[in-house]
Hints:
With 488 residues, chain A is mainly alpha-helical. Chain A has helices spanning 2-17, 22-46, 75-96, 103-122, 126-135, 137-147, 152-180, 195-199, 205-222, 231-238, 241-263, 268-295, 299-320, 323-354, 370-384, 390-405, 407-413, 415-431, 448-466, 469-486, and strands at residues 54-62, 67-73.
Amino acid sequence: xxxxxxxxxxxxxxxxxxxxKGAAARALALGASLLEFGLAVYAAFAFKATGTVAFNLNxxxxxxxxxxxxxxxxxxxxxxxxxxxFLVPLILLSAFKHKYDNxxxxxxxxxxxxxxxxxxxMSLDAFLFYFFWEVALIPIYFLAGAWGGERRVAVTLKxxxxxxxxSLLMLAGFVYLYLQTGPAAGSLAQHSSELSAFYSLKLxxxxxxxxFWLIFAAFAVKMPxxxxxxxxxxxxxxxxxxxxxxxxxxxxxxxxxxTMRWLLPVLPLxxxxxxxxxxxxxxxGIIYGAIIAIRQRDLKRLIAYSSLSHVGLMAAGVFSxxxxxxxxxxxxxxxxxxxxxxxxxxxxxxxxxTGTRYIPDLGGLTRRTPILSVCFLVMLLSTVALPLTGxxxxxxxxxxxxxxYNAWVGAVAGLTIIFSAVYLLRMFQRVMLGPDSAFSETITxxxxxxxxxxxxxxxxxxWLGLFPNSFLxxxxxxxxxxxxxxxx
Amino acid sequence: MTSIILLSIFGILNLFMGxxxxxxxxxxxxxxxLLAVFGANLADWNVVHAPYFNNMLVVDNYTVAFTGIVVxxxxxxxxxxxxxxxxxxxxxxxxxxxxxxxxVGAVMMIGYNHLIxxxxxxxxxxxxxxxxxxxxxxxxxSNEAALKYFLMGAFATGILLFGIALLYGAxxxxxxxxxxxxxxxxxNASLQPMLYIGILMMIIxxxxxxxxxxxxxxxxxxxxxxxxFFTAFMSTVVKTAGFAxxxxxxxxxxxxAQGFWLPTIQAMCxxxxxxxxxxxxxxxxxxxxxxxxxxxxxxxxxxxxxASRGNLTGDAASGIFFYSLAYSIATxxxxxxxxxxxxxxxxxxxxxxxxxxxxxxLLAFSMTVAMLSLAGIPLTGxxxxxxxxxxxxxxxxxxxxxxxxxxxxxxxxxYYLRPLIAxxxxxxxxxxxxxxxxxxxxxxxxxLALLSIVLGIVPGFLSGIL
Amino acid sequence: MRPxxxxxxxxxxxxxxxxxxxxxxxxxxxxxxxxxxxxYLPILIQFGLALAFVAFAMIVSHxxxxxxxxxxxxxxxxxxxxxxxxxxxxxxxxxxxxxIVFVLFDxxxxxxxxxxxxxxxxxxxxxxxxxxxxxxxxxxFAYIIKKGILRWNEA
Lengths: 488, 466, 155
């Protein structure tokens, strides 16, 4: 029942928002998202980390085809639900800072998107998963398209086509898998699209080999992995700041989560055949993203490429198929979500004050903005993976996992830390320190309401860095389960 | 059967209603009459009727289901004829009467059990449509559409009739259920060439009516020239009835000749998907794009025919039903919005939709849902329509065809997004005023969007009914 | 217009009519059940003959006939009178409507004949069906009159 409430609460709020204007709309959007977060926290406390799926909700959706409306939470899903519900109120708060046309619609789309995201993280039926996967795409398309920058038309079209083509391939893969399943117990339908039915499939290595790419196409585009990434920097740059935060903070995790839940255990032979190739691609992405980030002069674009680089490491961690690597992925998903949202928020704060995000135009901003500088630095250092921060725990575990998988790959992947230190610190130096610019004297520091957004983020950064175990123990049984399924 | 009787009587009634002073009552009148027909039709659900007219017409769940689609489609289409009422169109009663008469033809095409009945049904439907295609008498494009449609349609009907004659010659019967035995009977083996040519000609004739490639070439010109209100009718009711007839013919009468028609239908299917989608992608007029898109949807429905494997029930038949319903709802909404916008802004290219999201949020929303449904994006009925058809085909092992259809639906995304881009991402022209929409149209558009979404969220209640 | 060799054509046409009726007779006496594709051969021959005759007549008249052109001869005319203006002028749609209505009521009689012949066999059902048919027909007639299609002088 809890899962259903979690799923439909944002949707109900979104529908209500279509009829409400002004301050009431803000209050409703924020209230609903906070309530949602409260529910998720309650779920986390009620959750016992045993490796079984909790809060099951299972109804026949299309009974003639054996497709169920099946929701549930295990450790992995729970953490991502927590992340989503934690970030959405903050993203909404940051949206309040902007003067958008039709703000109610904007908030409604954000909440609608939240339903899609939560659905993806909670569904235990392949077609339900696919359904929410696409549901999450529609609002973000309109958010980025209708409220985006100048080049939004072409950019969002590219984004949409990339992702939909990927997910259609995934759908084709799912349909094939579905047709291989037998009937579920007590069902009249010939096939079943339950996750468990997919897990018990026995497919030949040749089938798994091509199915792997069909299904992975969707996840690879969403993450994105080199060379499926070309939509990403453009979209991140052109989308309005809250949409960028949704894209980078949460939507990207859909791809990683999908790989862990719907690819590794379903097609273990395919994974063992192609895993190394994907790891290599990921590592190429790490280096490629980092090198391009060094040359960027647009603040948002730089963060976008930095995100690309970090996602590469996570993907490599997923395919390392080690417990330590997968646990690293879990922590890094949370840490990266927090970091990248914080970074984009700071970049947005600077842009709102100065009207530009062109790095050479900025400089010497610290004098007037001590609080902003400190917040920026914390976010930045966590992204660079300085000890005590969440980024450090995640990247350390990830690198350990990848190193176990292959020492050479691990060594190259380790460059990500050095590279990110180079481009991020250089960026900080040019934007915040450095010679004075036209804005050095006029810029104002963070306001209280902006701090309201950054403080929870910073708190979580340190919490993740100091007590990673409070999250790791939730996901541990789920990860062990997953690995046992891969090893079958 | 009640629906045929009621539709015929109501059609004549409508003709005489035209003699009244004001034509304000015509629209609500026609809608009420159709609602009565819809109810009467639903009352036949799960009721067993003996075949009518010496086994020429049967009313079973199949008939009721598809009749339900065509009647419902017409009901929700009617509000968009408001501009005729406002303009004081003198022939409005005749238009409605012709629509009702063509529905009679559609129901006969759906419920036929005798090839002559099929032929009569197709003719009743088509002749009404020839007239309606040219109903805008002063518009040369409408005249062109009517003439083209009539000449080519008459040709196709001739070929269909020839096919029926050959089939009769080869088997000695017109009745579908007897045909199945006669086609497979060994004593008719020597007449196989005649039989096959007959089947081929029937496929050509019906393929023309449902605009399946390579017999689709008339579609864009005719759809473009025909007044939008009737284009919507053509692309939904005619197509639905055509596919119901097509499926029945192949599944009931010709399962014995499957080895012959299956490759033919498969080839037509692939060709239709290709030409429809690629053709739509290069259009600049929204109406022409919708015309090509209707060709491409004929392609998806042909997949259902391939997957049916001579079965009038089961996955494929249910899939065709569901797809036809979802497609009809979305298409009516798309043409409805297009008609309202085109009437107001005097153009029907993509740019006509510019900034509609600002000026008319409801129209834009309705169009969005319709486009997403036609593109087959989840949350809309179109997704499950495609899903059921493709899953049925994949279940029968037609993997290559399914993969091709999926690739083609990716092409489809490109052109279905273009109206959305125009509506939301491009500003309206300077001084663009909101498109006037009256209450009943607003309600209808909201209903259509709601139906699309309901079909996309809880498809279960209609998915396996056949 | 050039005078044609009427006599010869006429004779050939007569011949053809004779041949055709004979062939039809031949076909009719065949037993109905076991047609062979070869039984259609006479039809094919007749078809070929018909085609060949057309070609023959055209070629021969072209070759044999004298060719003398003059402006007077080449001018188009109607019933021996010189033509005036274009033949493709708009004609009042009334003619067309009347013709269509005529055809409608003309064809309807075809329906009555078989009914009248089988009147007894069809019984009450047939009677009711014919009453209904006549009702619809008369409804259409009433509609036509009400629409003013038969009033000639109004626009």
